[in-house]
Design brief:
- The protein is mainly alpha-helical.
- It is built from four helices and no strands.
Length: 101
């Protein structure tokens, strides 16, 4: 039951949900949640290939780097979304494009 294909299937499902969330949502928070799902799918792949590829720690180290990157991305993106909400009273991504004008 615990073989590489199981982990890859779970990661593919998470990645698909993340891409679907990023493509279909207009809410900025929902888009960020989709991005986090995509990054978590990448982490599952890193750790699974590390486990089934010889038990080295390279995949675990890359997964930790992705977690740090996701935390920094979430902090910056949430700050941007809060700034958009303060200026426009909405977190709709489509309406934020009007800030270019």
């Amino acid at each position: 039951m615990n073989d590489l294909n199981t982990y890859l299937l779970v990661a593919a499902i998470l990645f698909s949900f993340g891409v679907f969330g990023v493509m279909t949502r207009r809410n900025g928070i929902a888009v960020l949640m989709g991005v986090e799902l995509i990054l978590n799918a990448a982490n599952i792949n890193f750790v699974a290939f590390s486990r089934f590829g010889g038990m080295n720690f390279d995949g675990h180290i890359f997964a930790l780097l992705v977690i740090v990157l996701a935390a920094a991305e979430a902090a910056v993106a949430l700050a941007i979304i809060i700034n958009i909400y303060n200026n426009m009273n909405t977190i709709n991504i489509d309406e934020a494009s009007s800030m270019k004008e």
